């Protein structure tokens, strides 16, 4: 029962019930045929409504849906790096969403053959007019989500500026991330991140044929999508040095140091891998037999094993199927790239929610000892002296006083949520903002303080912002959706969130380093939207502790 509950809790922002067919027009007024050289012709369509609640747009949005950007990783290509798609003759219809990548939940509408993207564009603008592009990487803990996690058509429909929005899919769960010695030896680590990378290259080649501006690509993402974006952002080294495949960045609840990215032989991953291999009845040795077996297993068995191990790990937030370092695209961890300065000097819009941790943390812990063992289990590289520090940094509420003494659910809930949120999101985002602002690039930082139908005991948990990016009137506070979306559009189009934001939008001032200003985005009941000094919104002392360079390294960040 608890597993079902937490799975829902974790994935509610990302999953849609199997949708009714999306209303679209098979006969757009203009042909919407694009020719992608060395690939093929695609016939687009027009999307008429939002994904959720099917709210009709004033004007239908031009769209190309479900286009493959790679040869699909099936059969012998399962667990292999994806490759450029093959050219074909004739015209393919691009008027239906591709299936989601295999993930937790029912397998209807899921497939291994999931490496596709959707592209939405303001209607009535000739294709030879190149528009700014938002390229969005969805979240879902690297085990969930899809190209429909962000409603790209709704984003375009609400935009006062002509724009292109692209949503893409990458391999998830065990199929996308199976840390192990085997995969390290066979150069098969971080496949899901490599899918994203291939797609960035694909966009460099082809976005202009859809009327997108190759020189105005904002790479954005939320949660695991934001970590992904941040990892690409901090990959200004090796053959990528000086050659970013995007022009600016949006990071919503993420950072290159958000997660620990230990190596492929991390003890936890080793156990989870062995558990997985046992479940799918594949041998651990020798490599060729193990891989051959993995490529032949029924997809349902992979789905079930991947899901089961994820669910078992959910309570303690010791998730399997994560990117590892060293590994492709994270040869160096984020803290090292930060220290070396090997990130791209490109404008950044970065945010976290007020109560990030509260979506994830256990609601039944009541003692100081449980607080300590939760953290020690989460991050085994915390030393005894670290754990002593943490007891002080986050005062124990059992005495009946202090900042965490009014916890709902269970006595330690607020305290653990604060520590987990700081460790995973809030302090890593501050570190990224600090580093980028230090090289004199525009940084806009926000604290998102608007819930979206979360239970009140969760405050403003992780992913609250998800329904507000689009300007969707179905968000709990539709005025905030309109406001936040307008900042996003303005940043994507002008590199400045203020330029075309709606009338009366408070000025979102640039962030100038630790302690400087961040925009609080709040509904009226929570004090509204205004600039605050960072120290008024986040735990500065605790963040300085988590951002300590030696500690970040030790925690594999
Ligand atoms: C809290 O709930 C989890 C999941 O149901 C359970 O495994 C664990 O033992 C509980 N912990 C305490 C301290 O009650
Ligand atoms: C969860 O973590 C606790 C320590 O906080 C540990 O005792 C327990 O065994 C862990 N449970 C699982 C399923 O890993
Ligand atoms: C960046 O940080 C360094 C070290 O803290 C400092 O000396 C330098 O002035 C900063 N540069 C900018 C542009 O803020
Ligand atoms: C801090 C900042 O970027 N302010 C700008 C916000 O946008 C308005 C309108 O373009 C500018 O006048 C401000 O300079």
Automatic annotation (TrEMBL):
Entry annotated with the keyword Signal: yes
GO molecular function: hydrolase activity
Coiled coil spans: none
Signal sequence, start to end: 1-19
Annotated EC: 3.1.1.-
Enzyme class: hydrolase
Pfam families, per the entry: COesterase
Sorted UniProt keywords: Hydrolase, Signal
InterPro entries assigned to the protein according to its UniProt record, in alphabetical order: AB_hydrolase_fold, CarbesteraseB, Carboxylesterase_B_AS, Type-B_Carboxylest/Lipase
All residue ranges annotated as the Carboxylesterase type B domain in the record: 54-511
PANTHER family noted in UniProt: CARBOXYLESTERASE
Family stated for the protein in its record: Belongs to the type-B carboxylesterase/lipase family.
Protein name: Carboxylic ester hydrolase
Organism in which the protein naturally occurs: Lophiotrema nucula
């Amino acid at each position: 029962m608890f597993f079902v509950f937490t799975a829902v809790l974790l994935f509610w922002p990302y999953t849609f019930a199997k949708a009714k067919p999306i209303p679209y027009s098979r006969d757009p007024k203009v042909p919407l045929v694009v020719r992608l050289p060395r690939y093929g012709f695609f016939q687009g369509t027009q999307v008429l409504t939002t994904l959720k609640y099917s709210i009709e747009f004033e004007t239908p949005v031009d769209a190309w849906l479900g286009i493959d950007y790679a040869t699909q990783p099936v059969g012998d290509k399962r667990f292999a790096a994806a490759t450029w798609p093959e050219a074909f003759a004739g015209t393919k219809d691009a008027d239906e969403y591709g299936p989601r990548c295999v993930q937790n939940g029912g397998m209807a509408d899921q497939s291994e053959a999931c490496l596709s993207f959707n592209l939405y564009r303001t209607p009535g603008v000739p294709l030879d007019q190149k528009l700014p592009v938002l390229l969005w990487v969805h979240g879902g803990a690297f085990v969930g989500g899809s190209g429909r996690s962000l409603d790209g058509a709704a984003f375009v429909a609400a935009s006062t500026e002509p724009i292109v929005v692209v949503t893409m899919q990458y391999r998830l769960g065990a199929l996308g991330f199976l840390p192990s010695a085997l995969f390290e030896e066979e150069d098969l680590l971080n496949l899901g991140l490599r899918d994203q990378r291939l797609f960035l290259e694909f966009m460099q080649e082809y976005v202009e044929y859809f009327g997108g501006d190759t020189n105005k690509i904002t790479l954005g993402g939320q949660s695991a999508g934001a970590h992904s974006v941040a990892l690409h952002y901090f990959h200004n080294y090796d053959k990528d040095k000086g050659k970013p495949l995007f022009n600016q960045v949006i990071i919503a609840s993420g950072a290159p140091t958000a997660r620990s990215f230990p190596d492929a032989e991390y003890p936890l991953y080793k156990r989870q891998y062995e558990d997985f291999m046992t479940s799918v009845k594949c041998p651990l040795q020798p490599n060729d037999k193990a891989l051959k077996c993995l490529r032949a297993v029924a997809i349902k068995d992979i789905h079930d094993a991947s899901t089961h191990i994820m669910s078992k790990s959910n309570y303690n937030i010791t998730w399997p199927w994560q990117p590892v370092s060293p590994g492709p695209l994270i040869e160096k961890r984020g803290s090292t790239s930060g220290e070396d300065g090997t990130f791209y000097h490109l404008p950044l819009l970065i945010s976290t929610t007020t109560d990030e941790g509260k979506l994830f943390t256990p609601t039944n812990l009541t003692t100081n000892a449980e607080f300590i063992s939760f953290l020690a289990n989460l991050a085994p590289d915390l030393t005894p002296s670290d754990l002593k520090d943490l007891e002080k940094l986050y005062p124990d509420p059992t005495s009946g006083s202090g900042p965490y003494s009014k916890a709902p659910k269970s006595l330690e809930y607020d305290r653990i949520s604060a520590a987990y949120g700081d460790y995973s999101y809030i302090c890593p985002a501050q570190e990224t903002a600090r580093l980028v602002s230090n090289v004199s690039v525009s940084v806009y930082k926000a604290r998102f303080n608007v819930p979206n139908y979360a239970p009140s005991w969760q405050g403003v948990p992780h992913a609250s912002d998800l329904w507000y990016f689009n300007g969707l009137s179905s968000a709990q506070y539709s005025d905030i959706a309109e406001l936040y979306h307008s900042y996003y559009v303005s940043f994507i189009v002008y590199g400045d969130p203020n330029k075309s934001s709606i009338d009366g939008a408070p000025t979102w001032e640039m962030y100038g380093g630790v302690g400087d200003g961040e925009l609080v985005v709040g509904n009226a009941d929570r004090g509204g939207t205004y600039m605050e000094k960072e120290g008024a919104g986040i735990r500065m002392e605790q963040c300085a502790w988590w951002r300590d360079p030696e500690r970040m390294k030790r925690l594999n960040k």
